[in-house]
Amino acid sequence: MEKSSKSVTLVLGGARSGKSFYAQELAGACERVSFIATGRATDAEMRRKIARHRRERPAWWKTVEAPVKLAEAIRRESEETDVIIVDCLTVYVANVMAGARKKANINFEECIGGVCEALRDSKASVIAVSNEVGSGVVPPYRSGRIYRDLLGQMNRRVAEIADRVVLMIAGVPLTVKDCGISQRGDVLFQGAAAAESSRSANGGRKRVARVHETLR
Predict the structure, then answer these.
(1) pLDDT tens-digit profile of 158-182?
(2) 212 catalytic, yes or no?
(3) Which of the residues 53, 75, 177, 207 is marked catalytic?
(4) Single pTM value for the model
């Protein structure tokens, strides 16, 4: 029986670890890419970050904004694209929490389960980006601890269904889970080796450029 060519990848890491850049390198092997952004331009710093991310990805990629209706966006975009990038689950969980403060009837389990179900059902490959926040200090305030626990639960649930989980450390990708997707002929992961080669040749210069941009 022919194996499916779609796959789910979770890219984890700390702040400025190269998560988004690595996800975009993987997706660069595909022709049709939908970029699902969960961030909101809530202040000047976030507006600058969103603008910088837009400049860093190809102009022909489709951008979809889905701060809270992430599962619906994944299902919709999977019908008409080769690969979906979700950037990022970290902000999505924060948005759900913010909504919960306004509407007491929001069910976090349903939100997490809905996203995981959409990932499993997706007809396109999906690359989900998220922060690994469980290795730091315990947040001193209750809402911070709730957020850490919810994001940890989201990451764990997505990792369970993912074909591949990559942990970014200082710009270096470490594969912590691989279900043999490289043997399936998936174009997304045929391009992974090329992405690693490109990272070695160009990664240093691009990271320096991004640092300069951040400091402006």
Answers:
(1) 999 999 999 999 999 999 999 976 5
(2) no
(3) 53
(4) 0.84
